[in-house]
């Protein structure tokens, strides 16, 4: 093919079209944002977690592009309605509406919510990652301990193998999951287990509290919107 030709090649997922759509949008993000820097991209499932820092960053940027493309912020927020009543049933409905996976919709919720929220993804009972909302970061609410292997909290819904789904959530003491929380604080724990997989999602929605600044990891987690990505790569969108 000529130097100006390009294409997206992906492994079809006949039983997971949502993942397929996100993959295509992700690769489109690479073309729009990174084609001046890299001529060819070979993305793997764990590309964000593995590889060099530069590789991790462009994978995060492509994911952000796909998320903005498939789940526009204004429409997603409108679909959430009263955020005080949001649970995995509501988010699951939005996942169907926008044609994305439950995990992708949960990540978008955590990114956009005005609540303190934490998303935990588990593979074979071991924590793979934690994603926190801006208010969770500012109040220093977290479960993950760096450089440690963690399992679901004993006595929690997520730690109960007999409970596969708990979409509406149950009330727990916040300290059960987040040791630095005040003793009187509570949270709602929601759980979603993927069918025929060892993957599980835990969504923690915490009571509001005043910021306790000092945790600046939210600066690393900030994702620009699509228009900002265009400009950062020197490509100005046409209106």
Give helix % range.
25-40%
Described by strand count, sense and barrel closure, the largest sheet is: 5 strands, antiparallel
Fraction of residues in β-strands: 15-25%
Low-confidence stretches: 45-51, 218-231, 235-239
Provide a compact summary of the structure.
By secondary structure, this protein is an alpha+beta fold.
List keywords for this structure.
239 residues, alpha+beta, 5-stranded antiparallel sheet, disordered C terminus
Can you tell me about this structure?
With 239 residues, this protein is an alpha+beta fold. The protein is 34% helix and 17% strand. It has eight helices and five strands; from the N terminus they run αααααββαβββαα. The protein has helices spanning 17-34, 53-70, 73-80, 88-98, 102-112, 134-138, 218-221, 226-232; strands at 116-123, 126-132, 165-173, 186-193, 199-206. Strands 2-1-5-4-3 form a five-stranded antiparallel β-sheet. A hairpin with a 2-residue loop joins strand 1 (116-123) and strand 2 (126-132). Helix 4 packs across helix 5 (102-112).
């Amino acid at each position: 093919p000529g130097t100006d030709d390009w294409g997206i090649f992906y492994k079809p997922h006949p039983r997971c079209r949502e993942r397929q759509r996100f993959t295509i949008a992700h690769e489109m993000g690479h073309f729009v944002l990174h084609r001046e820097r890299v001529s060819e991209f070979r993305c793997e499932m764990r590309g964000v977690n593995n590889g060099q820092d530069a590789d991790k960053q462009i994978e995060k940027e492509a994911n952000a592009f796909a998320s903005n493309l498939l789940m526009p912020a204004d429409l997603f927020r409108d679909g959430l309605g009263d955020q005080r009543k949001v649970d995995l049933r509501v988010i699951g409905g939005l996942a169907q509406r926008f044609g994305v996976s439950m995990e992708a919709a949960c990540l978008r919720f955590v990114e956009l919510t005005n609540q303190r929220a934490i998303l935990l993804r588990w593979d074979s009972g071991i924590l793979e990652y934690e994603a926190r909302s801006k208010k969770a970061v500012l109040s220093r609410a977290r479960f993950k301990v760096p450089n440690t292997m963690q399992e679901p909290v004993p006595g929690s819904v997520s730690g109960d193998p007999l409970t596969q789904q708990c979409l509406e959530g149950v009330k727990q003491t916040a300290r059960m999951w987040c040791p630095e929380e005040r003793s009187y604080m509570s949270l709602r724990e929601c759980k979603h287990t993927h069918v025929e997989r060892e993957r599980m999602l835990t969504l923690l929605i915490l009571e509001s509290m005043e910021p306790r600044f000092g945790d600046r990891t939210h600066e690393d987690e900030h994702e620009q919107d699509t228009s900002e990505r265009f400009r950062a790569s020197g490509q100005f969108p046409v209106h």
